Amino acid sequence: MTHFDNTPMHPIGVIHSPFDEKFGIPRQPGLASIRAEIELLPPYASADAVRGLEQCSHIWLVFLFSATADKGWNPTVRPPRLGGNERMGVFATRSPFRPNPIGLSCVRLSSVNIDGNSVRLEVEGADLLNGTPILDIKPYLPYADSLPEAEFGLASKIERLELPLVFSPEAEQACATHAKRLQQPLDRQIDEILQCDPRPAYKKGDAERVYGISLYGLNVRFRISAEQIEVISILAE
Question: Where is each TsaA-like domain found (predicted)?
Answer without folding.
Answer: 9-149
